[in-house]
């Protein structure tokens, strides 16, 4: 039986989607707690802490551009032929998830934290980019791919909830001023991420590379000299730039960039806002962040609503709701005793 004809069962879909607990959870914890941890317990200045995240984002953008093409041609070497051009990166990425623990140690220098964060960003990109291509590798059936994507989205929302709920519990248990809560949180999530990525590697598969597919992949001769590689990189950026000529793509890109930038900023400053502006404990901040659990049923309801009402009305409702919530937080800050 061809690999692409294997049945996509619910257990397989769950096993595939588990990796997005890392995708959704790791960076939720980082966004919510890392800058607070670095400025409060490590002794970094706000500029130093923020620069670590900013530099890592730039490196991640560059790595992500080339990772897809790299995995496309990874089948040409012995490792790719034996373990798969996509799944190999899940196999080696699973134990490397333990690097996440090092983000939460104390007493190190700025350069240590920068190096560790850069390493984790690269490891995450190395895992997530080939992992995201697996549905098209595993099956040609649209309904089966939808099953994989649905499980992935649900588990991603679950990871986001765990990433906000568990830190709050640990901070409440160890106390507001104990950095061990953050380190233990890092250890717990490192092990969870490692197991999730390993299970995804175990339950997934790739389609066989037919001679036709290999011929298509090899139709473009790979550059060998330095100048040919420079030209190839320039051509790659030119192709990416050409997508901006599509008006609909520009609109969707703007929505994506503004939405996720706002989400990252909100997650990053929320704990600071609660602790220093509202004068509440960091554990309560974590409890408030764990309200992200509403994302689980809302994800399911939004899937029904987008079919019934269309994306435009859903956008209007969603962004109106968010603006009202932000206005509510502003009122709490302005009138704390009412």
From TrEMBL:
The keyword Transmembrane helix applies. InterPro entries: MFS_2 (IPR039672), MFS_trans_sf (IPR036259). GO terms for molecular function: symporter activity. GO terms for biological process: carbohydrate transport. It comes from the Bacteria. One of its GO terms (cellular component) is plasma membrane. The keyword Transmembrane helix applies. Keywords: Membrane, Transmembrane, Transmembrane helix. The chain crosses the membrane at residues 21-43, 49-67, 88-105, 111-131, 152-175, 181-201, 253-278, 284-307, 314-335. PANTHER family: MAJOR FACILITATOR SUPERFAMILY (MFS) PROFILE DOMAIN-CONTAINING PROTEIN, MAJOR FACILITATOR SUPERFAMILY DOMAIN-CONTAINING PROTEIN. Belongs to the sodium:galactoside symporter (TC 2.A.2) family. This is Glucuronide permease. The gene is uidB_2.
